[in-house]
Amino acid sequence: MKEMLRLEHVYKTYNNTDGIKDISFIVNKGEFVSLLGSSGCGKTTTLKVIAGLEKVNSGKVYIDGKDATNFPPQKRDVTMVFQNYALFPHFTVFDNIAFGLKMRKVNDYDIVKKVKNIASILEISEYLDRKPSELSGGQKQRVALARALVVEPKILLLDEPLSNIDAVLRRTMILELKSLHKKLNTTIVYVTHNQLEAISMSDRIIIMKDGRIIQEDTPEKIFTNPKNRFVASFIGEFKMNFIEGRIEERVGDLKFVAYNDIVLNLTDYQKSKLWAFKDKFVILGIRPSDIYIKHPREGLLGNDFSGVVDIIEHFGINKLLIVKIKGFPITILVPKDFNVSENDTISFSLLPENFYFFDVETGENIFYEV
Fold first, then answer.
1. Which of 225, 262, 336, 357 is found 20 to 30 A from 249 (Cα to Cα)?
2. Which residues pair with 356 in a beta bridge?
């Protein structure tokens, strides 16, 4: 694949405070790559560095094979859609979309042709004579996208473009962005703190924390092979359960022993890795969706428990149960039609094949595969 964007060891500092530290990654032509992280992690700063809105302290930015580190924004052939859309309130939708073309001195005939074409693709043709104040949040978002796309940039930068719209519309816009990306094959770098947006749309996700890249991979691999506890807790619709315990040898066999002597059996592969942690504390992780009510199939290894349902939370087609095992709370995801009430006792299984193990001191995934 053709490389469209490369950052090499980029640092950006504000008043002796690091914004981003040693950021390096590549985006290929036509890829949709998300920068994912919580507020203040450096993802928007990274986007501004790519756009040329922030100068780097050190490092290089290459766009389409050219060293663009010192290029001004207008020379980079990238466009950026901001969180608040930044539409001109006194312009019509047509004039908002046409603004970049006029700045490039495109002739009037081509401006009309290009604006009408992108408006048709984004299904906003009927709003071309309106002002932004007459539009809904979703319509404004489409206008901002149209303005960015009409100039046919090499890279489209999106800074949390869905954060100001409601959850239902956000889901619709996620599908529309995916469809638009597929249709136009535009290279997109997308900034978000919402992991569902990143997982739903991205070819690759770059997870950031404290100005650094923590992990970079496909959504599926990040979900199944998180590099550390931070990534494991950040990725997934429902937060992973974490249980601290010791790796102990009992009757010649290796076990995970947690709170109130909760003893869990392990697979042979897990034992082979965890012998090095014998008599040491580790953190076991298991996703709420990987805990099975009753016994779903044969071959269980004895990790069967009963617990009292403390709290029930409803999430559309699912319910999240907070169940206490010997006083320890654990969350379990069940279908909405699972018949259960608070204070009921339920039986469930923790299958060792679904366990993750993290080093207590470093937080690193003991079973992480590069």
1. 225
2. 285
Length of the chain: 370
Tens-place pLDDT, residues 219-242: 999 999 999 999 999 998 899 999
CA distance 22 to 17: 14
Helix axes 167-184, 108-121, angle to 10 degrees: 120
Q: What is the pTM of this model?
A: 0.89
Tokens of 286: 């298991």
Query: DSSP readout, 216-257?
Result: EE-HHHHHHS-SBHHHHHHSSSSPPEEEEEEEEEETTEEEEE
Residue 358 DSSP label: E
DSSP letters, 15-54, are TTEEEEEEEEEEEETT-EEEEE--TTSSHHHHHHHHHTSS
| CA separation for the pair 74, 104 (Å, rounded) | 10
Strand, coil or helix: 208? strand
Residue with tokens 């269980």: 300
DSSP H helical ranges for 88-209: 93-103, 108-121, 137-149, 167-184, 195-201
